[in-house]
């Protein structure tokens, strides 16, 4: 007697359900394991991290000017909120061209004021949603002032030697991590991934979880 494919599927479903009810162990579908060289890259030379001892560092190389960074931001913020205490996250603003430098300086000024996370939605929205012509640090000062930041103090910090030095160090880090586009995510100074490499923003966050787990396992 021939059995149709639908009948076979129905029979299999009943058999598996019966096995579960009978107390037989179930075997969950295994999550996809990210592939090196496809969904993430291993750095030729591990890079120093700033994370305290016992924590796994995750670095986001980004730019306020980048539409893909804007798209990733809410998902990445939600991901960050769910991480345990041993994940140390920091953002590094990249400037591939001179006209992107003001955005770097703005980030470090806001970070010094403790306002980087709070003002990010307003800055991204002004650039990518409202389409305001933001090109200078003064333009950015107008945006953050509306978000409650002291305009004069922001401009003072953005022009400071400390911020200029941080901007130079970021570009050195970007070169060491072989960053050629943003957003790009580094883990433990060893690996990088991105939505482009992983195939989507959601998949990139899955790769992050996997790489963090690898680093934890390596430390045991």
Identify the notable features of this structure and list them briefly.
220 residues, five-stranded mixed beta sheet, 5 strands, 52% helix, disordered N terminus
Brief rundown of the structure:
This protein has 220 residues and is an alpha+beta fold. It is 52% helix and 10% strand. It is globular and about 50 Å long.
Number of DSSP strands? 5
Shape estimate: globular
| Straight-line distance between termini | 57 Å
Q: Tally the structural domains.
A: 1
CATH-assigned fold name:
Glutaredoxin
Order of helices and strands: HEEHEHHHHHEEHH
**Architecture in CATH?**
3-Layer(aba) Sandwich
Specify the number of helices: 9
Structure description:
The chain has 220 residues and is α+β, with helices and mostly antiparallel strands. The chain has one domain (29-219): Glutaredoxin, CATH 3.40.30. It contains nine helices and five strands, in the order αββαβαααααββαα. It has helices at 5-21, 67-81, 101-112, 116-128, 137-146, 151-158, 161-176, 195-198, 201-219; strands spanning 41-42, 56-62, 87-93, 184-187, 191-193. Strands 1-5-4-2-3 form a five-stranded mixed sheet. A hairpin with a 3-residue loop joins strand 4 (184-187) and strand 5. Mean pLDDT is 89; it is low at 1-30.
């Amino acid at each position: 007697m021939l059995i149709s494919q639908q009948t076979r599927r129905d029979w299999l479903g009943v058999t598996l359900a019966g096995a579960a009810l009978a107390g037989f162990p179930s075997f969950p579908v295994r999550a996809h394991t990210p592939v090196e060289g496809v969904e993430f890259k291993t750095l030729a030379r591990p890079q120093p991290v700033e994370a305290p001892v016992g924590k796994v560092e995750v670095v986001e190389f980004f730019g306020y000017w980048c539409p893909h960074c804007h798209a990733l931001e809410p998902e990445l913020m939600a991901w960050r909120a769910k991480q345990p205490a041993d994940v140390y996250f920091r953002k590094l603003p990249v400037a591939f061209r001179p006209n992107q430098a003001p955005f770097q300086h703005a980030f470090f000024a806001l970070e010094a004021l403790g306002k980087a996370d709070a003002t990010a939605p307003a800055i991204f929205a002004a650039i990518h949603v409202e389409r305001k012509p933001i090109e200078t640090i003064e333009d950015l000062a107008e945006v953050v002032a509306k978000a409650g930041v002291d305009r004069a103090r922001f401009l003072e910090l953005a022009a400071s030697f400390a911020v200029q030095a941080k901007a130079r160090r970021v570009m050195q880090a970007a070169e060491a991590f072989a960053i050629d586009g943003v957003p790009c995510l580094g883990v433990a100074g060893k690996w990088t991934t991105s939505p482009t490499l992983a195939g989507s923003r959601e998949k990139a966050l899955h790769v992050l979880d996997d790489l963090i787990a690898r680093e934890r396992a390596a430390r045991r």
